[in-house]
Every structure is written in C-alpha cells, then in structure tokens.
Amino acid sequence: MTLAYREGRAAWRRAGPFVAAIAMGVAAVVAIDSARRSFGASLESEARTLLGADLRLESNRTFPEPVTALLDSVAAGGNRVSRITRFASMVLAERSARSRLLQVRAVSGPYPLYGNVETDPAGRWATLGDGPHALVDPAMLIQLDAAVGDTLAIGAARFVIHGTVANLPTELGFQAAIGPRVFIPGAYLDETELIQVGSLVRYEAYLEIPQRDSLAAFLDRYDALLEVNQVDDDTAEEQVGRMTRAFGTFTRFLGLVGLTALLLGGIGVASAVRAFVRERLTTVAVLRCIGATRRTVLTAYLLQAGVLGLLGALAGVLLGLLLLLPMPRLLAGVLPQGVRIAPEPVALLLGLGTGVWVAGVFALLPLLSIRDVTPLQALRRDVQASRKGPDLLQYLALGAVAATIVVLAIWHAPATEIGLTFAASILGLTGVLALTALGLAHAARRAFPAGAAYVVRQGIANLFRPSNHTVAVTLALGIGVFLVATLDVVQRNLVARFSVEADAERPNVLLFDLQRDQLEGTLGLFTQRGYAVKSVTPIVPARIAGVNGRSVEDLLASDTGLRPRGWTLRREYRNTYRDTLVATEELVAGSWTTGRGTESEGARDGVARISLEEEVAGDLRVGIGDRITWDVQGVPVESEVTSIRRVDWAQFEPNFFVVFKPGALEKAPQSFVALARVSDAEERAT
Description:
The protein has about 675 residues and is α+β, with helices and mostly antiparallel strands.
C-alpha cells in the first residue's frame, strides 16, 4: 500500500486521460441504465392510472347481453364501471366552417377510475355530462380555427366546446398531436346518428377491482365468457409490461452505445497504462535492486490502476447524474403523467462497479510486462527480457477482456442473441484493427524511406519504434469511427424509412373511404393538376366465420393448445384483392398462383384463393391448403390458403393480413384507398 502511494504521487499529473476515458463511458452507462430502471419502477407505481382502471374490456361490437349483465353485476357490487365508445368522424366547426377527421370518444361514467384529467378551464371534465358539451385537444382548436364556446357538428348532433383537455393520464402526450380527440357525453351518442351497421367502432368498459386476488379470480371465472363473446381483456399490469418492454428495448439499444463508449475508455486506459509502464521501467528495476519482488511491484501498480479507475468511475457517475437532469424536460411530451426519470441507486452502483472492473481488466495486460523487468535494467535499459512471447497470465488477461465484453454486451442488449452478435462484432473489429495496425508497423519498418526528409523519417519511425502507440491509437480511432458511423447509418435509415418526403417517388397523400361512385371525380382532382395517383386499393370488411369447418364459437370454446389465438377470430379484417405481390411483401410459402389455373381464377369451384400474412397465419394455426370461411357483411365466402407472405408494415403502403385473388370479392360492398404524390406543399394543401 505504501509503495503504491509513493509511486502514485509521481503519476497523478498523468492521470487525466486515464480518469477521463473511464468517466465518459461510465456516464453513458449510468444515465441510460438509470433512465430505464426509474421508468420501469414508476410505471409499476402508476399502473392503474395509466390504464384508468384495474381492468379494461374491449370489443369492436356492441357488448352482447351476457357481458352487459356482467358489467351491471360488477357495478351492483359497489365497484365503479365506466364505458367509452370510440370512433373516427368528420367534425365541423360551424363558425369557421372548417372540418377535420377526428377521434370521437363518448364517455359514460366516472372515467378514468384512477388519476385526474387536467382541463382548461379547470374542472370542466367533471361537468362534461351536464349537457351537450364537448372537450377537445388543444391541437383541434388550431386545426378547426375554433375557440371555447364554439359549436361543433358531429353527425346530426351539435356540441358546445366546453374547454380543452390539457392532460389525460391514460395516454402519452404525443398521441393527441397524432390524432386529436373530441370527448362528448355518452348520453348524447345516439343523437349523432353515426353508429350504424358497418361503422368502425371500438367499445370499451373500465372496471374497478382493486384487490389483485379478486381481479385474478374474476378473470379466471369469466375468461370463457369473454372469449365466447369475442371480448378482449387488459389489466393495468399487462399494459405496464408492454410499455416497459418497449422503453426497455429502446434504452438497452442505447446501452450498447454507452457500452461501446466504456470499451473505448478501456482502450484508452490500456494505452495510458502502457505508456506509464514504459516510463517507469528504470524505477521498477531500481525497486527490484533493493529487494522488491515481482509480485510486490505488480500489486502496487495494479492498486494504482484500481484507484484511478475508481476516481474515473466516480467522475462518470457524477457526469451521468448531470446528464439525467434535463431528461424529464426533454421527454415531457412523451412520458405518461406521473412517470419519472430519476437517478437509481442500483444503476449508480452498477456503473461504479463496471467502471472499476473495466479499468482494472484493461490495465492488467500492459501491467503484466512489469514482471519481466530485471534488476540489471537499472543500469542498462536495453537488456532483453527473459520471457519470450505471451505466457499463461497474459492469455488469461486477454480472456478476461474478451469475457468482460461478452458479459457486458449480453447484459445491456435487448436480447441474448443481440448481445452475442454485438460482442462478436466488437471482438472481430478489434482483431481486424489490431492486425491492420501491426501490418502498418511492419510495412513502415520494411519500406522505411531512408532518403526522405527528417520530419517524414521521424514520423514513420514512430510507427514501429519501441513504446509506439500504433495498435492502441488504431483501435481507439477505429472503434470510435465504427460507433459514430453505425449511429449515423441507423439514424439515416430510420429517417428515410419513416419520412414520406425522403423519396421523390414515394406517395405522400393518402385518400381513404372512397366509394365506388366517388373514384372518378376524386382521382380526377389529381390528374387535372398533372399529378399521378400511385395506387388504388379496394378494402372489403369481413369477419372469420369458421376455420376448416369449425365455427368461431366452437374454436373459442376449445381448451386445446392448438386453437387459434383469440384476437384472430374476434377482429374485423380489412381485406383486399389483387393479382400481384407489392413491394412491401415477400412470399415465404406456397405459390402466388392458385395451383388450379391462372391467377385470375381466384374463386374457382366456388372457393376463393387467399394469401395470409405469416404472423396472422401462425396465430390462426393455419397453413397452405387450410380453409377459412368469411362473413362478408352477411354473405359467407369460402376460401383456401394458397400462400403465406411476409409484410413490411413500416412502409407507407396499404398492407393487409389477407389478400384475395381476383374473382371473389369484386361485387362485395367495399371502399377504396388511394395513394398519390404531390410534391408542392401548397398544391398538397389545396
């Protein structure tokens, strides 16, 4: 200990790069890990508030009588129950004569059951049901050029804007910007005359069942009833789990970035220690002359590296805390109400320990060369070491570095496979860079320009002279460039993928709910102005009536593990028909042709030929040759699966779970979706 302290006094002035290298990496790890942990912890504490209830039931049909009776019994037992009917509708501001497609939500009962809704003016949520009032998102006032007190026309009903919803605890802030909402009293829903056969409506019921055991018993008792009546259930814990996984995956990807920064710090530590050891060779030799053993000297310098690593890790923890300070403000519009981003003690301790460990492991390899210093080197620096090549301890040190990279990568990655791939990439890149640096040094020695100017000779000689930093600098620069380039490529790909303006040919106008008699006139608006419509796609709503001769009710009541997933049988599908694949699709099984004729024979023998998206096919437990019976607005349509597709849902294209071959749905009631490209912003607005 005394030797380490005395030797360290002379080295403090060179400790800056060592400490800074570790501090930067630890700061990134601490900030990202704290954000992930605090987000998950606060989500759990706000679980009921985020759902607005203990249990939510939802269906795309009016709740059938058995479910309505169940809700009434829950309310009769003293538990609160609220209902919401959700649908999209054109809304007209009568004063400005502006209209917009908005989300309409008819609220009945004390929604939400947990949490408070903030309105402007304050307190208006509690009086929403006192008359034909409406509360709206602030963005809607801007879009419709409306103000509090104006009248909105929603279907055949009229509602006075009672105020704006400043904060709804059950939703993220940016959701209101994506789809502005209008809240109306449920008692006035029928007056709108908008809920008719074929309307796309979502019915929800929110239940108060505060005791976890009671909630579990409730679901166990009524699960079969809900399944048979095609009603989905969602608990507060399930919703929090989904949000935690989504945010956790994002922050773990960022954690890999922080880990890369920490590994760069480790390389910086190794380089700094290597330079320090070279400078202290004479001192080590003198210590050997006066009786210090190899173990004593090595332990002293390892202790110094550990102390410097601890200082760097402490500095990194403090810097990570500073990085956390602006996060709540920057994410204010994204985080749910009540969810916080704050320092987490576990993350701080793990960051501290990781920093010290990385500093020690990366410093160990260059420090092992101290064992080869002989007492004779106190008089002659050019004495060769007795050891030739790496020994067992050096191989163990290299193994410890590799194991550290693998373990930390798996720990920070969203999945083990991703962590292993990341670690393999880092180790492979390190090997390539190290070989490149060694090759450069060897080439510089072999092709040394003896006749060049002094400055050139001196610079090139430094690439291969003793104590050169060629490998360390190449590793640091190479991995640094790798990190920056990877982030840049990911950012550019994401921006290009989700920006409708990134591609000069990509559609940026979507027309939907076009009726057959509206196609010619609507699409003519584009052709008259010289713009081409990219695609026109028919949409035919349908439900599954049976699979392979078994009815939906029979399948839902089945208790075997091979039955289809409930959501695939309960949902209303938006199907289409066409004779070709599109750019966002890839055939993974079967044949796009029917196998019984040409592509146009999509309904030969009275059986339609269909192609299913691979995930829905898996959840339906069907494959090539299986039969699905469809209820197309009261008309049964028998179909056979002839192919399975993989769909890229992220693309701005009309994508579908089910595609019929032509010849089966042309006469069915349908609407159309059209995509067009209008480059000029003013023309697009017109």
